[in-house]
Please model this.
Amino acid sequence: MKQVTFTLSATDGKARRGRIDTPRGDIQTPAFMPVGTAGTVKAMYPEQVRETGADILLGNTYHLMLRPGAERVASLGGLHTFMDWERPILTDSGGFQVMSLSQLRKMSERGVTFKSHIDGSTHELTPERSIEIQTLLDSDIIMQLDECIALPAEHKEMERAMELSLRWADRSKTAFNNQANRALFGIVQGGDAPDLRARSAQGLTSIGFDGYAVGGLAVGEPQEVMFRVLDEIVPELPTDRPHYLMGVGKPDDILGAIGRGIDMFDCVHPTRAGRHGHVYTRFGVINLKNARHKDDHRPIDEASPNRNCRRFSRAYLHHLVKTEEILGAMILSQINLAYYQELVQGARTAIESSRFTDFAAETRAAWAAGDLPTL
Model:
């Protein structure tokens, strides 16, 4: 009997408050999943990631299958043991990275053959192999293999990729074979075409999945296009299953998507931004590379619940960023991940109190007001 379930506990307009229960722990939604691409959230210890409030991590099938290899991870006890993360892990299918990182690839009905960006070796990824790899990694939430194309694209090309993804979804479901203690999510494709997105959602619903992801966004389209697609497609998804927006995003993207009925998010942005000197706060984003911070003795935010926001001066963090010290990446990644978790926690509380619209407006107003005035 499956032991991954979703419970919807409150709604406020289209915004949803819920919980995904898994044998490795529950996931409060809306949820942000830090990305552990190659078995690590960059510049963070696993316990630090958990302390930010993260209930679940994302692992990357493409990178892990190439190095160190799924069979090797399995022989070493699975990804949770390998990276010392006891809570749930969602793994993507590997399809997006094949499309974006591999310059030499060949698509077919069977799957995709590609050359590794690491050493040029040839690999094949099929729906069945993707499910096998994710199972070897001991993932808790497994994603179907799909084809993700960049936008803008011709309608015919979006239709071809969407229909192929639907056929791969059916094969992924068969390969998954209703494994106990795991969930399988389908991925809605169709670019920015409402008719294709609707057909994809209907096809996936008929196959039947434990959750439904919206893929093919955050691939270069403007935010208004992403929000329009969500407005059109989320109402087509089963309400009793989690809704996951893949690869999104910045805080304003997340707020907007929560208000449109999305429950789960992942993105490399907060840690990548931290490594490049950008820190997310209730005042918006602060670029610590700027010279204005070099003599600023103030902390990032003296009222923040995050100790690192109160502990270090902006001058010191500016120095770490400018000298490219590893500690700078560690501190700023932690601050950013903690802020993302504060954001979704605030959204959860607001939805429970039927004040999500006010919460979103107040949050955006604080971002617009900007940083604390210079002393």
In short: The chain has two domains: 5-266, 274-363. DSSP finds 15 helices and 16 strands in the chain.
